């Protein structure tokens, strides 16, 4: 029983390490995307972010399935091993209770991490959108050049007067306000 609990604890620690590694990878990819900000279109960057999020979710689902398979294998082995020493029915029932307890908590934390990633992805997207609008609104300048040429002709001399007027107007576009998140990460 103690051995099983230690194994479960070890598995959960490994899972947390994998989640931390995934988070670091995600942050590195986001930094790379920020560096490519001026080279990429907004839509293309959004599609890349969505793809990244989907990959992350697939990895998390894979981890969930692996943990469940390991738990089932351990559960089966443990039950089989203790058949001769204990009352089978009682042991089996107790073990099932532990298994569902662990599964419930793992599922709860998986949902928590999923919301955490979704929440930060959502905010990253809106801050990027804000930055994009701000950057392009401050660099948008309209330059109007008016050239007026006046020619005065007399019998002896020709006078050409050229007047150049340059008008530069900077237009600032205010982006729409940041909408509230669909839910708050707990």
Automatic annotation (TrEMBL):
Region feature Disordered, mapped onto this chain: 166-186
Biased composition range(s): Pro residues: 174-186
Record's keyword terms, sorted: Membrane, Transmembrane, Transmembrane helix
Transmembrane segments: 42-74, 102-121
Protein name in the entry: Uncharacterized protein
């Amino acid at each position: 029983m103690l051995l099983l609990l230690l194994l479960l604890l070890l598995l959960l620690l490994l899972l947390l390490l994998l989640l931390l590694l995934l988070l670091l990878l995600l942050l590195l990819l986001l930094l790379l995307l920020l560096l490519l900000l001026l080279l990429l279109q907004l839509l293309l960057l959004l599609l890349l972010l969505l793809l990244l999020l989907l990959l992350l979710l697939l990895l998390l689902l894979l981890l969930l399935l692996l943990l469940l398979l390991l738990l089932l294998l351990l559960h089966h082995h443990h039950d089989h091993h203790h058949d001769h020493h204990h009352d089978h029915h009682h042991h089996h029932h107790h073990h099932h209770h532990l298994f569902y307890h662990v599964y419930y908590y793992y599922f709860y934390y998986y949902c928590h991490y999923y919301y955490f990633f979704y929440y930060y992805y959502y905010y990253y997207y809106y801050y990027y959108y804000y930055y994009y609008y701000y950057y392009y609104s401050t660099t948008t300048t309209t330059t109007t050049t008016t050239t007026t040429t006046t020619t005065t002709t007399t019998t002896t001399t020709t006078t050409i007067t050229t007047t150049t007027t340059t008008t530069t107007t900077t237009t600032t576009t205010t982006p729409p306000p940041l909408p509230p998140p669909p839910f708050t990460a707990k």
